[in-house]
Amino acid sequence: MSSARTRPGSPGGTRRRASSRPVRAGNRGSEDSRPGRRRTRAPRRTAATPRRGPRFTGRAVLLGALVLLLALTLAGPVRQYVAGRQELAELAVGHDALTQQAADLRAQLDRQADPAYVAQQARARLTYVLPGDRLVVVGDAGGVGDPGEAAPGEASAGQVRSGAAVPWYTGLLDSVAAADGDPPATPADPASGDSTG
User: Fold this and answer.
1) Which structural domain range is residue 64 located in?
2) 88-104 pLDDT per residue, tens
3) DSSP 161
4) Is residue 70 in some structural domain?
5) Is 90 a member of any domain?
6) Strand pairing partners for 161?
7) CB-based contacts of 175: which residues, under 8 Å, 6+ apart?
8) Residues 124 and 118 sit within 8 Å (Cβ to Cβ)
9) Distance (Å, rounded) from C-alpha 139 to C-alpha 123?
C-alpha cells in the first residue's frame, strides 16, 4: 500500500487529503510551504523601528513636478494681477485728490462771484478804499540805528532844512540817493563862503 491516505469508499486511485485550512497566497509556490520544513519568521517590527522605504516615489516626484509647473505657469498672471490692483489703488487715490481739488476750485469760483468777497479782497490785497472811508497805513517801526530813521536833531529828506521848505523834487532825489546807499547831498552854506560846486 502506498503512503498516501485514501478515503474509504472512493473508487480507484490514491488521493491526497485536502486540508481544511486555506493556504496563504504568498506561500503557495515557495519552498517554505512544503510539509516537514520548518518555516522561519521574519522579526516583527515594533513602533520604535519604523519601516524605511524610499524617500521619493515616482508619484511624489511627478506630483512635485506638476506643482512646480503650475506655480511657474501662474506666476506671471498673478504678478500682473497684483500690479494692476496696485495701480488701480494709486489711481483711486489720485482721483480722490483731483475731486477734492475740483471742489475747492468750484468753491473759490462761487466766492469770487460774490461782490462782497471781491470788495473785501480789493481792500485787503490792493488797499482800495471806498469813498468816505479813511485809509490808514501803518509802516514797520524800525529799531535804533535803522538807516531809514533819522538821528535826533537831524532833518530827514522831506523835512525843513535850515528853516526853509525843501521842494518836492529835492526830497525825491534825496530818497533815491538814500535808497542807493549814498549820503544825501547837503547844500553849500552861503555864510561860510565855500563854493565846492
Assistant:
1) 58-115
2) 999 999 999 999 999 99
3) B
4) yes
5) yes
6) 164
7) 157, 158
8) no
9) 17
Q: Look at residue 83 and tell me whether its pLDDT is greater than 90.
A: yes
- Please count the structural domains in the chain: 1
17 versus 64: the higher-pLDDT residue is: 64
Is 79 contained in some domain? yes
The string of pLDDT tens digits covering residues 44-54 is 666 666 667 77
Whose cell is 500682473? That residue is 80
Kindly state the helix (H) or strand (E) to which residue 178 belongs, with its residue range: helix 168-180
Which alpha helices (H) appear in 30-156, and where do they start and end? Answer: 58-112, 115-126
What is the CB neighbour count within 10 angstroms for residue 159? 11
179 vs 37, residue with greater confidence: 179
Q: How many of the other CB atoms lie within 10 Å of CB of 174?
A: 20
How far is 93 from 103, CA to CA, in rounded Å? 15
Place of cell 462771484: 113
Phi/psi region, residue 196 (left: phi>0; alpha: psi -120 to 50; beta: rest), is alpha
Structural domain includes residue 25: no
